[in-house]
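Dear colleagues,

As part of the handover before I leave the project, I'm documenting each prediction I ran so the next person doesn't have to rerun anything. This entry is a single chain, and its sequence is reproduced below.
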Amino acid sequence: MIRFIHTADIHFGMENYGRVDPVSGIHTRLLDFYHALNFCIDNAIENQVDFFLFSGDAYKTSHPSPTQQKLLLQSFLRLYKAKIPLVIVVGNHDNPLSFGRANSLELFGDLPLSGFHVIAKPTSLVLDTRHGPVQIVGIPWPTRNSIAVSDKHSHKSATEITQYISQAVVHILQDMAQKLDPNIPAVLAGHLTVCNGIFSGSEKRAIYGTDPLFLPSQLAIAPFDYVALGHLHRHQNLNHNGKKEIVYGGSIERIDFGERKEDKGFCLVTIEQKNVTHFEFIKTPTRPFIQIELELEAGKPQTEQILAELIKYTLTDAIVKIIYHVPAYQKDTVDLKVIQQACADAMYVVGVIPIRQAASRERRIGAMKVTMELPALLGAYFDGKPNLKDKKEALIEKALQLLQEHSECQMHEE
């Protein structure tokens, strides 16, 4: 029986919300991702897993800061000390755009330490674990460089090259699969986009993107017992009715408010024997993202309405966004200082954002014509103004009085 951790999309460097921690001097969001990763590692050590599989995107960019690199190295060295092999598949965020530049994870493969395996191009390896060998085929994020697109394709469009890369990866994968021992457990690890996968924070399927795409049937092939994927941030099993699991571990922490309702975590996978595999999704402790949105009622104190809504939520240590809709024809009277004080226990307030409802433009009444007498014109005009309709007669009388006074003044001047 082989057990391992499958995780992906750590994204150290995602610091879009938060502040500098006064104790460590490190950004609070970086610490959130660091703690989530170490929660995964704690679980790996506690369960004495046979290996730890990371399916790509360790950093936000391919040029991480020294602090980000230090925290990731500290985390992975815990696996080394626990004698748990680490397999890393390079993701798109780890890959530099320039030819010849090292990817951001390459140094882990160059360390003089046993048990660290970095897969930067399609690779097949046999991993010796405490419970026996396991075969791993790694497919990093497919690019022109990793798939070796030759000059003969230089005349093709970007779409045609992307399709070629997809086809090339499928051929490489099939060739590697045929060379595996069918009697030894096998895992396919990739940072790939499967066409029926769903992007995190939406219901938009991956087929709408521009990534190289793959069908589930192209990945769930013999002799793989489990397909461990990274890239899409939503945890999902794309073949839950099939014999072979095709699983996105998902990101270990929330990236933005689009993911505020999603559980984040990793997979604890067990291969009991060939063709008998199951996994458990384990949630990581994540920072709450709370978006509060309300429609303000006209005629009631606006600040008090928002305060009454805030008490319905636990804001302590959360990242908070407040959106309030101001009624049409109403002035925004919200006291932002009072709202900010009410959110004092939150870790970070993204914003208190007003949405003003645009006043609908009234259509001119078709009966209005330049040939009409002034009283009739004024009457038709005020009929089209709901807020002035009840004052129509008084306004017309006042307008006619002003016109009469103006006429008398002109006669007096003459």
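The first strand starts at residue 2 and ends at 7. The mean pLDDT is 88.

All the best with the project,
I.
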